[in-house]
Specification:
Layout: H1 2-23, H2 29-66, H3 72-75, H4 77-112, H5 118-130, H6 133-140, H7 144-158, E1 163-166, E2 169-172, H8 174-198, E3 204-209, H9 213-226, E4 232-237, E5 251-256, E6 263-276, H10 279-284, E7 298-300, H11 306-315, E8 326-327, H12 331-339, E9 344-348, H13 349-357, E10 369-380, H14 387-399
Parallel strand pairs: 3-4, 3-5, 7-8, 7-9
Antiparallel strand pairs: 1-2, 5-10, 6-9, 6-10
Helix pairs in contact: 1-2, 1-4, 2-4, 5-6, 5-7, 5-8, 6-7
Length: about 400
């Protein structure tokens, strides 16, 4: 019986050792690695001790079978052994799973340690570009303290400073100068691949200025009805340009004197300007000539008032001050204000043609001037051969005048 007590004590000690080893996984990568080694050794000891207990149990059975008088100790021997064996086996399995998890975490974290914090690298690139923590924080919409902490984290990772702090700003250290081109190239490559992957979708990502939506939407709906396999995803914007290198669009509607470089273009229509207003406005203040505009509020679709200046100069209405009136950010906002009778707007005849036909707007003058600018459907060369882009561009080219 003394042998059994010694064996059970040995098992208990080893269980404690296994528990300590398996708990160390939460203490860090290096501790977790050592814990896995300790658990492996302790598990081997445990299995040997369990084997010894099993042998002692069998020996006790033999002695008990030859003993005519069963003692209370021997009568309870089997249940005790059974509980010990079950408990030890479960403990080994449980701690084994925990240490296996520690080993897995260690291997994963040990692999990830080769890379610096990616978020800190992005902030490093921004700070290096602006040469200022304050301007970088404003650009990233973060606090200056948050930016400083990220740079400190990166410097602690590399074990050397990346910036030299001066009263007039920041300069890169020699190590920072060496790191910056690699960071820029890496993030540019990731961005390029990401944009390429998003453009492989079956849907067509289209950017459209808000002022063109009234003209463009019926055409998109007709295209969608005839080609249900291509889903057109529309993003509206007040901008009239696009940068395919940084924006995730397959195509866009732009405005300008030319479509630009490195794109393929489908001309849609030329800009033609003419004043428009609500029909009821003319009943209150008639417009017999352009000079009568001095009695009306001019509604400008741009902050620089260039459209009204161009039209008034073309018709010779020098008495009308184009600097006066209300300014809006977009053409459709100025046109909506004109519909509600707030003044006279200068608008594109193609874009307001439907409102004029429905008598929501009227043309007080017959003079329509061309500006030399056009609206274009453009798409980058890299997607020109994609089925969805080719199908949509060819369809628009065929139906643009309808």
């Amino acid at each position: 019986m003394n042998d059994i007590i010694v064996a059970v004590q040995r098992v208990t000690d080893i269980m404690t050792e296994i528990g300590a080893a398996s708990m160390e996984q939460s203490m860090g990568i290096d501790q977790a690695s050592r814990a896995v080694c300790r658990w492996t050794k302790a598990r081997s000891k445990m299995l040997r001790s369990l084997s010894r207990l099993q042998r002692l149990r069998n020996r006790c059975r033999i002695k008990r079978s030859s003993c005519k008088a069963r003692s209370p100790c021997s009568a309870s021997c089997d249940p005790i052994f059974r509980r010990i064996l079950i408990a030890c086996t479960r403990y080994v399995c449980l701690s084994g799973r925990r240490c296996a998890t520690a080993d897995s975490n260690f291997r994963f974290q040990n692999t990830m340690r080769r890379l610096p914090p990616l978020n800190a690298l992005q902030i490093f690139e921004t700070v290096a570009r602006h040469r200022s923590f304050t301007r970088a924080a404003e650009h990233l919409c973060l606090t200056q303290g948050a930016v400083s902490r990220q740079i400190l984290t990166l410097e602690e990772y590399y074990k050397f400073p990346l910036f030299k702090r001066h009263a007039k700003g920041l300069t890169l250290t020699a190590e920072g100068e060496l790191l910056l081109p690699a960071v820029k190239e890496s993030f540019a490559r990731i961005e390029e691949i990401s944009l390429r992957l998003t453009r492989q979708r079956t849907d067509l990502a289209l950017k459209v200025p808000t002022c063109v939506m009234r003209w463009m939407l019926p055409k998109i709906m007709r295209f969608q009805g005839g080609h249900p396999g291509v889903q057109v995803q529309i993003t509206t914007t007040w901008q009239h340009d696009v940068n395919f290198e940084s924006e995730p669009f397959d195509a866009a509607i732009i405005y300008g004197s030319s479509p630009g470089a490195n794109v393929r273009a489908v001309p849609l229509f030329e800009e033609r300007l003419t004043p428009v207003c609500a029909p009821d406005l003319l009943k209150v203040k008639p417009l017999a000539s352009a000079a009568d505009l001095i009695e009306h509020t001019l509604l400008h679709p741009t902050r620089d008032h260039r459209d009204w200046k161009l039209w008034l100069d073309r018709v010779g209405a020098q008495a009308v001050d184009a600097n006066l009136g209300a300014s809006f950010d977009t053409l459709d906002m100025a046109t909506n204000a004109a519909m509600q009778g707030f003044g006279v707007a200068i608008s594109d005849l193609t874009l307001v043609g439907e409102d004029i036909a429905a008598k929501r707007l009227t043309m007080p003058f017959d003079t329509v001037i061309g500006t030399g600018s056009r609206y274009y459907l453009v798409y980058p060369e890299c997607v020109a051969d994609q089925h969805k882009v080719k199908l949509f561009s060819e369809w628009i080219a065929e139906h643009r005048d309808e």
